Each structure stands twice: as structure tokens, then as C-alpha cells.
Amino acid sequence: MAQLDANDITQAVLDRMADCQDPRFKQVMSALVKHAHAFIREVELSEEEWINTIFFLTETGKMCDDKRQEFILLSDTLGISMLVVALNQIKAARAFQQSGGGAQTPTEATVQGPFYWEGSPEMALGADIGENMPGEPAYYHGQVTDTEGQPIANCCLDVWSGDGEGIYDMQMGEDAGMRLRARFRTDAQGNYRFWSIKPSFYPVPDDGPVGRMLRRMGRHPNRPGHIHMKVYAPGHQTVTTHLFVADSPYLDSDAVFGVRNSLIVPFQQHPAGTAPDGRRMDTPYHSATYDFRLVPAR
Ligand code: BEZ
Ligand code: FE
What we know:
- This protein is of the alpha+beta class.
- It folds into 2 domains: 1-45; 70-294, Protocatechuate 3,4-Dioxygenase, subunit A (Sandwich), CATH 2.60.130.10.
- 27% of the residues lie in helices and 21% in strands.
- It contains 6 helices and 14 strands.
- A hairpin with a 5-residue loop joins strand 11 and strand 12 (280-281).
- Helix 1 packs antiparallel against helix 2.
- The longest helix has 21 residues, at 23-43.
- The N and C termini lie far apart (52 Å).
- Benzoic acid is lined by residues 73, 76, 111, 113-115, 204, 223, 256.
- It comes from Hydrogenophaga intermedia.
């Protein structure tokens, strides 16, 4: 029979994938079709709403280039990115426990966000990536170990953040280049240290379709202050995460749902004077310490 009605159409789309040779793709696409059709039935979507959705997604795509990723922003603000991260971390933790686990809990992951820029400069331990940038200086230090507590030498910490006013280099205009981002390698004892600024809370880019969506939902666009880190070493699982500033606003209403209690770090205030690495500071500064725990790769 050629004609399908609103009741048979879902099954007809599913049946049309009978010859699909890729079982995982078939599973994902079947679930997508079922849930999308169920959603349309539930809200009784009008034709006008559907064409407006298509215009919204078109505008979202047109807003994307190598410095602006409106689709990541859409995924982040709808909680999709964080749900994917959290489910994958639960799965990895289960596999880790089944293979005997470790003495220490692995560092939790959170969203990568749209401001990661591959290939940032490698800098010596102790370097300052926040020099001449707006913001109060902060000294970051700690150790990277595996989940048995064994130090991981030569582990890469790829770090990036906005400045003290919450602006990322990618938002600073054509000529800014890379700022407030670098890669550091741990020493023989797995220790790392570097200087940057104490990051401020900031709004996710809200001058595009996602910003319009947030306002219409009655939501604010702000993220609590944080610094991003991608921590990786051969033989270990990479963790993409943040350190959140403990006294920042918006910790309880992050626009992208990325906060993890284990990643909230107190930033200690210090008066001008000699910093823990011997640097002479003419102004007050902050320090933050955090130890990362990587899971050995199976
Ligand atoms: C960020 O933290 O850089 C970020 C994450 C999600 C959306 C926008 C920005
Ligand atoms: Fe960020």
C-alpha cells in the first residue's frame, strides 16, 4: 500500500532501513526517528513551528566558522554535551571498576566548549600566560598521577581560559592570536606549575540564534569562572575538564550545566610578596592547587 497515515509513518521509516549494513548506525538512526516522531506527536508541532526550526538550524550553521561554533553552543546550552560527557564517564568508570579499579578516583570530565584551539605554544613550567592581560594574577600548581597514585612525568596539560573579564582570545578580533593558552609538561615527579589570571564568570556568546533561544527560554547565558584543561599522557585516558573558581557567581546555574563538585577549587588570596615558586609579586595574587588523576588506558 502506497499511502501511509500519521500512525504508520514511524514504522515505515524504520522498515526502510532493513538493508542498513551498519548495526550501530541503524540503532542510532532508529532511536532518532522514534524519538523525533514521538516528540512531534507530543507537542503537536505546527507547520509554522517546524519551518521556523529549520530556519533556526540554518542560521545556527551559517554562524559557524573556525572561530565560532554555534552548534557546539546549542548542544552545550541544551545540556546535550554534558549528558554525553557524563554518560561516557559513567561507562568508563564502570569498565575501570570491573578491571580492578584504582586506589584513587579519576578526575571528572566536563564540556570542552567551543574555545579549544589545537596547537597552542608549549611553554616551560612556571611560565606566565596571563602577562599583560586583564585579570588578577593566579599561580596554578599540583601533581598528575595515575589512579594508583603513581606520578605521571611528561604529562601534557593543555590549558585555556578567558581573561579577567571573561573574554577569550578567539573573541578578541582578527589579530589577537593565541592568548591565555599554552601546553605545559609535568616534571619527573608529575608536578606542574604555571601563572595565568583568576578567571571571571562570563556569558557564552549570546549575539546569535542560541542567545535568542536562551532569552526566549527565560535563561541567563553565564558560566561560572573556570580554566579549561585537557590532560593527556601516553598510556592513559585523556581527560578534558575545568577547574571552577570556588567563590564565583553562577556555580549553581552554569548555562551549560558543566559544574562538577570535585572540580570546584578555592583560589587563595595572597598579598604582594614572594610567591611559592620564588617569583617576586608587586601586586596581590591568587593561588590554586589541584591534583589530576588519570585512568590507565586499557
Ligand atoms: C567555555 O567554557 O568556554 C564554553 C563552554 C560552552 C559554551 C560556551 C563556552
Ligand atoms: Fe570557558
